[in-house]
Amino acid sequence: MVIKVYIASSSGSVAVKKHQQAVVGFLEANQINFQEVDITMLEEQRLWMYRNIPKEKKPEKGNPLPPQIFNEARYCGDYEDFFQSKENNTVFAFLGLNAPPNRTDSES
């Protein structure tokens, strides 16, 4: 299973950039394998991301903002969902992963 983080490398939004860095930094620090998918460079991937975000997670106006997180084709959530799982010490469950044997989800 590959965690995919859909990002926008050329976002003009400081908040979006910080959110992307927070997700990627956490995954790197916890040695969780993931793939960054840049939606500003890959139109096909951007459209796939938009199509696969559940209707209830899409904003009333405009498009969902990155980062958006998937485990293969299963939607995990956006930055707010990720942040909430981090606060609740449930990131591995949020990502659909088993916690490594030498640690519990609450240690992440």
UniProtKB/TrEMBL annotation:
It is found in: Nucleus. It comes from the Eukaryota. Its main location: nucleus. InterPro entries: Glut_rich_SH3-bd, SH3BGR, Thioredoxin-like_sf. Keywords: Nucleus, SH3-binding. Belongs to the SH3BGR family. This is SH3 domain-binding glutamic acid-rich-like protein. It comes from Characodon lateralis. The gene is SH3BGRL2.
